Amino acid sequence: MRIDTILARKQTYSYEIFPPRGELPLQQAKEIAGELAQDHPDWISTTFSAGGHGNSQNVAAICAQTQNELGVTALAHLTCMGSTKEDVDYYLDTLEHDGIQNVLALRGDKTAGKEPKDFRYASDLIAYIKEHHPSLCCGAACYPEGHIETKNIKESMEVMKYKQDAGADFFVTQLFFDNEYFYRFRESCARSRIKRPIVVGIMPFTSQKQIQRIAFTCGASIPSAVIKRIIAAGDDRDKQAQAGLEYAIEQLQDLAQNGVDGLHIYTMNKLQVAHQIHSALKECGYLAA
């Protein structure tokens, strides 16, 4: 089913998993998707690895299993940095052949030696998909605190509008740790005539080292409430991870109560974390018991 159709009917709940890289065989990735499917999410998305489009066939294989064997709608990521139109067409043809109807169109990270080819921005990719693969539902990323490469939130909102005008059917946010940023962002979207559904992406932090890396790579602010919990956990990695899970659950429950279009969990392939979040959202009434 198309994700925009699902979003038109209900508040959604979804998961994201990483594709197999060296330490994660394809079969194990499929097993992770199978385990997550037991929570009956509205969809499961599968990301490209840091290696970019060279990983596309693993993504396609996981999405095909998710949708055709597990019965859960699949969302396939697509990054265009360094890709040609032929690369994109081959990948999307593969998805469409397997009945996948949803793709998340992203620029991808800038890396040394990988220059833009046929697509400079995500909005270019979205427009291409809509022209050449019109049956696909196309999602796009958005950034409640502004993209790390933009000068300010106003410029980031303009980029989001470009994506909508290019044909984006829905948006998924970058992770954040302070819900107030999202609520202000949502108000800015309304003023900027952003009319597409906005699904909120949340990732439980697992350690002090991880959250410091996130702050510098994604530009996500670390609120004092998070810092205090990490300090209270001390050097115990298990306690740090538990603090991250508890904080994420509080974030998600607050977002659920404030009428977001959907909740998307960046699982980091951690099954027990995903299941505990699912249980907590059932308890607060966001998900059916």
Beta-strand content estimate: 5-15%
- Extended strand count: 8
What's the helix count? 11
Shape, principal axes of CA atoms: globular
Strand neighbour order, sheet with most strands: 1-2-3-4-5-6-7-8
- Supply the helix-strand structural class: alpha/beta
Q: What is the helix/strand order?
A: HEHEHEHEHEHEHEHHHEH
Average pLDDT over all residues: 92
Uncertain regions: pLDDT < 50 for 5+ in a row?
none
Helix fraction, binned, reads 40-55%
CATH class: Alpha Beta
Instruction: Quickly give the CATH architecture.
Output: Alpha-Beta Barrel
Rg estimate, integer Å: 18 Å
Sheet bearing the most strands, described? Answer: 8 strands, parallel, barrel
What is the rounded distance between the termini? Answer: 23 Å
What would you say this structure looks like, in words?
The chain has 289 residues and is of the alpha/beta class. It has a single domain, classed as Alpha-Beta Barrel (TIM Barrel). Helices cover 48% and strands 14% of the residues. It contains eleven helices and eight strands. It has an eight-stranded parallel β-barrel with strand order 1-2-3-4-5-6-7-8, surrounded by six helices. Helix 2 packs parallel to helix 3 and helix 5 packs parallel to helix 6 (153-166). The longest helix is centred in the C-terminal third of the chain and has 21 residues, at 237-257. 44% of the residues are buried. The model has no long low-confidence stretch (mean pLDDT 92).
Short description:
This protein has 289 residues and is an alpha/beta fold. Helix content is 48%, strand content 14%.
